[in-house]
Amino acid sequence: MKFFLTKEEKAEIYKLYNHKDLPKIKNVFFYCYACFAKIFFYVFFGVGSVFLALFVFPWIRLFHRTKLQYQIAARKFVSASFRMFLNFMKVMGVTKVKVDDREAYRNIHSKIIIANHPSILDFVYIMSMVPNANCIVRGGLAKTVLGGVIRQCYIVNTLGFDELCTLCEETLKEGNNVIIFPEGTRTPRHGYNHYKKGAARIAYNAKCDIQPILIGGNDKYGLGKHDPLWSYNHTEKYVYDFTLLPVIPVGEYLECSETIAAKRLTERMEKELFEAVSENDKHYVTNRDTTIAELF
Questions:
Q1: How far is CA 211 from the centre of its chain?
Q2: Which of 7, 98, 157, 212 has its CA 20 to 30 A from that of 240?
Q3: pLDDT tens, 98-107?
Q4: Closest of 182, 167, 194, 171 to residue 114, by C-alpha
Q5: Phi, psi (degrees; rounded to nearest 5) at 256
Q6: CB 265 within 8 A of CB 243
Q7: DSSP-derived secondary structure for 186-223
Q8: pLDDT of 188-242, one tens digit each?
Q9: d(CA 12, CA 230)
């Protein structure tokens, strides 16, 4: 693990993630309240996750004999828990959510779900709306108190690609979905991350279609990568606006080799999500560098 950054690395981080162009804080009292509330929810989420891992999931395992039954029940419980958590945030006035058709999200089956990644809550929102979702999680989490649940119900990214792809194919055949953020990390405030080809390669090998989701809304300052802990949107509460984009059919690329198909699929995913993000920026104040629109 690297503890110290070079001057060049610090300069690069500042270039991508600086917030010097943000407007002035509109309401100081609400801003302080929202920062306190955000920190409280961070702690609440962490403590709640440990509590569920130690005291709830063992009981779910006790009443479900097979691994598959346990996985289905555990994922549904996680989805319901995330909905409760997000509703709590909404009631406390920290977030606002817009979803056109929640039933459409519940009816997604056997798809690779991809999305842009503006904030730390993106995964939580998608999991709350798609109860039969699997995901690829950071391997380090499997060594924590959450490890038992993660190894049983989800896929860790420390596996070799062939094994990871096989596990994805198996869960997709069972009617589940796999959530992947092609950027690999949260979107920087300035510039963009080139999409990785992993989602395209998995979709190609599993012969399953790709469902893009736009995570729109306003500026998520305070929930982005490298944002200070004591930070929040300067002018309004967080707004999340979700849109299901047209499905990308993988069948159109199966005649190509995996290398070519993965490249073309990734380019298409990148183009469609970037265009959707650029359209969102016309309706919301995101305080982001919008020059990516010129690339496509």
A1: 14
A2: 157
A3: 998 999 999 9
A4: 182
A5: -85, 165
A6: no
A7: PPPSSS-PPPPSHHHHHHHHHT--EEEEEEEES--TTS
A8: 998 889 999 999 999 999 999 999 999 999 999 999 999 999 999 999 999 999 9
A9: 22
